[in-house]
UniProtKB/TrEMBL annotation, chain A:
Organism domain of life: Bacteria
An example Gene Ontology CC term for this record: endomembrane system
Database matches in InterPro entries: NrtA/CpmA_ABC-bd_dom (IPR044527)
Keyword Ubl conjugation appears in the UniProt entry: no
Sorted UniProt keywords: Cell inner membrane, Cell membrane, Membrane, Transport
Keyword field contains Oxidoreductase: no
Protein name listed in UniProt: Nitrate transporter
PANTHER family: ALIPHATIC SULFONATES-BINDING PROTEIN-RELATED, BLL4572 PROTEIN
Amino acid sequence: MAEKVRLGFVPLVDCAIPVVARSMGFAEQENIDLELVREMSWAAIRDKLSYGVYEAAHLLAGIPIAARLGLGGVPVQHIVVPMALGRGGNAITVSTRLYQRMLEADPAAMHGPRGLSARALKKVIDEDRVAGRPVMSFATVFPFSSHNYELRYWMAAAGIDPDKDVNIGVIAPPRMFDSLRNGWVDGYCVGEPWNQRAVFHGDGVIVALKEDIWPRSPEKVLGVREDWVNSNPDTASALVRALVRAAEWADQPKNRAELAQMLSAEANVGAPFEVLKASLSGRPVLRPGEAPTEVPDRHVFYRYTATFPWLSQGSWVGTQMKRWGQVPADADLNAVVRQVYRPDLYRIAVRDLDVAVPKHDWRVEGVNNADDRAFVGPDSFLDNSIFDPETVS
Amino acid sequence: MLLGCRGVGDTLVRLEEYNILVIDENPDRAAIVERGLVESGYTRVARIGTSHNLVERIQALAPDIIIIDLENPDRDTLEQMFQVSRAIARPIAMFVDQSDASMIQEAISAGVSAYVVDGLRQDRIRPIVDMAISRFNVFDQLRRERDEAQAKLNERKLIERAKGILMKEKGLSEEDSYALLRKNAMKQNRKIYEIAQSVITAFQLEF
């Protein structure tokens, strides 16, 4: 008898891993009857996982850490992370109007590295301030999302104070492009296909990709309740194996067109095939009507240890929570990360598979040295900073 | 005891003093919840659908309790707003008081979530959330009945169409057409409307 596992997901390209695990039979091979439920809100997924409606969930990397700390007016929940679900495909999209203003304000910045395009935004903000215009509004998908941290990182590196110089609000992913089109926000950071979709409709321009900010920033993870793992260790392992195999399948260029087809279904992502294909093929269109840009690592599901729950990535999320005042500066977040991110569960699950597993659970991030690059992928922060998790608490 | 009042210690707290906000994309369900609350003596109930200026509206209404369907994407927006806004009191998820596990389970299965201004006592929240839960369940029941009625109507239409096809293509009488559908349904252990659907599909394929 197959073990039933109910998994909640949000319609984004990185729900590919659970969708493939079900559709391509990887879950079945592990004797798991995987039931997938599409959700439109992170709060709903978190609550349904916490109270046992789901056994597993597609979660933002920061949610299990925030849940362990009881942040955001929500009671403490013990959710653990036995694996990561790839690197996502986030981007920062601005309205075509704001893009024109950025281009006029600082053409050099807009033609330089995309990671530094916020320098042009800084000039627009300064112009608005002088003219006495209201501050602009940006959106991310959740307070504890890498989107929030990436958007803030990109802004802060250009001298913008994200808490004072702009408003940053939260909008659920599938509603983002409508909000931009209706002029409710001037820009946003969200996962694909919701950037590409705005470009295809002529409503937005992508000014920075996740890989322009920090390619290794943790994105979605598999969240399961700690008590469920403890009472169902074999099922948890089987689930991880099925998802790792699905990630491997989804990562192969030859499968990407089929994957785009699969994801375009209304029960999965529910976005046009062409939009999904552009992004998944590593040839996204950044500006309406222009030729695609070659970004081979646009979506990484498996290579570069993209399914391994690196403690150093969790630790980086912790430092961003502190940086933006979501937790007190003296909180020992590395201790929390050790309870939440569980590479030990990953190692047990894949020990009999041909999966390249790192020697250590921690690493110094941002070094980007050549020996490491083939294994963990490009690793530079946009400001070339180095993140050593041992130097933070 | 006065109607609409509840004794708490030595003081009487009037139920209508709570500002309750119902946020729901479904106006019919919101109306049912609102009516239930008003009929129980809570007079200060407001409701809003999906709104891009949620922050301003909530600031203006200053709710003590927000009832919102569990799956509403606006919850993500609300939770961030509660975290950063200095203009409104910080509500907390009702699940904070976990001593009441049965209420949490009932709320989750009915699809109700609530945010409550910190400090409001659980015994004051409970009747409000209970009302929302029962009204969500009533709404669900009504919707199910309507869907079933609609499905029955569709089944009847399929059978009528299949009969029409059999009468025209096979020269059968209406009675014999129906008998043929029924016989096949019994033989294959399927519903009559399923056989009717097969008949329609089969004839569509030929043309």
